[in-house]
Specification:
Layout (H helix, E strand, L loop, with lengths): L1 H19 L4 H5 L4 H11 L1 H23 L3 H29 L1 H21 L3 H29 L5 H5 L1 H20 L4 H10 L3 H10 L6 H6 L3 H11 L3 H15 L21 H7 L3 H19 L2 H6 L1 H8 L4 H29 L1 H28 L5 H20 L1 H11 L6 H30 L1 H22 L11 H6 L1 H17 L3 H7 L1
Amino acid sequence: MDQDTKNGGIIESAEKASVVSMGTEKVEKEKRNKYAFACAIVASMISILLGYDTGVMSGAMLFIKEDLHINDIQVEILAGILNICALVGSCAAGRTSDWIGRRKTIVLSALIFLAGAILMGIGVSYAVLMTGRCVAGVGVGFALMIAPVYSAEISSTSSRGFLTSLPEVCISSGILLGYVSNYLFGKLPLRLGWRVMLGIGGIPSIALAIGVLAMPESPRWLVMQGRLGDAKKVLLKVSNTKQESELKLREIKKAAGIDDNCNEEVVKFAHTTRGEGVWKELLLRPSPAVRRILIAAIGIHFFEHTTGIEAVVLYSPRIFKKAGIQTKNMLLLCTVFVGITKTCFILVATFLLDKVGRRRLLLTSVGGMIVSLAGLGLGLTIVDHSKERLMWAVSLCIATVLSFVAFFSIGLGPITWVYSSEIFPLRLRAQGASIGVAVNRAMNATISMTFISLYKAITIGGAFFLFAGVAVVAWVFFYFFLPETKGRSLEEMEELFSKKKSSSMKVEGGEKEMKQVGLGNSATLSV
């Protein structure tokens, strides 16, 4: 009897979804709302700034070291200090976005980064350069937290994976632009070249800050402020039909604790809604579901960088030099190919996330990374111990660097941001996501600031064997702790993590039932 009731509920939900989608091919094909798509693109462009800074610093460090006469320890600190400051920025961004809104937080992020870029462009001394990196880092921390959260909150269930992966696309595009900037401006005089490389990164932030002002606020943040009338207007713009927007509004109101029958334009909450008490609910007294969500978010952010991507992206010129490539032009040209590979495969990932699913793509990605890292470790070890230049070993190093970046970009890279921005409940989302970003930046800084010392201690080949071992642990963690979230609304995530196995079975069973009544995945995604 209970099973029949469940099946009946599934079919009833499917029928409701059919009504929402109006049963027409036109609505089914129009899975991505153009307005929501445009807003997500603008919000995600803030991430180009981070990507550019990472990519350009990779080559600029060669010139900075020569011009300012700094040692390897100072180079490591210069590379990693941005991420230490980004950790501070990401922690502050969660509460800030709950207080002033998602949109204004994006503007603030762009302005902070602009100030940092100006200081780095001046760069009259190592101290000024470090100050600029610190200021830019705070802006980066804000950007990394807010862009995926805004995209997740403004997108529909059917396109959420695509839209929330756009920040990672922008990061990869920024890295590629940074590599190209290295190659082009590297031909300028030494004292001018690297300063132009770093300073020019602030120009897009001005246009971005202006563009963001034309975007709407997140409807979920508006509901949390009791501004139901404003939220309804935004939902009408980012939904394909009026019925769909009304269904979304009911779900968000329910998640925010507002009576479904309330039709007021503005609601006064009896409790505070500006992010107070969230840290206590997240860290001190979390429910079992919230605890699992927090572990999943921290885990995926931890493993994104401890598997070695920052070592490859930031220190690729050194890696290629160790592999046997000597001239600066060739080193910088090889890094451009790394950037092209990263950008191309991240674009592929955006189209697969909502079709293949997060979990399957993630496990495939990490599996490929393990093989690539082991191959790179082997190639570098052979080159390191060989007295003559072995072209096959050099080719192996180059091929495995590119394959590692490709596998990372098609799964772990974008899914980290998609997954962590969608699994937290509405009341905890901004500050929960900020914890994940803080862990992400801490691990990024750790790898950035220790890689040179690490490979000097255990050889460069040994360093990549170590990363391969971490990737194996990451695969096991993802297999056991990360359930599939494809096709689930943001308001369903807490239930998904409260009963992991039964929920997963329910989703799979629900999809089968919907297919049997002729609705397929489109109905599942519309619920």
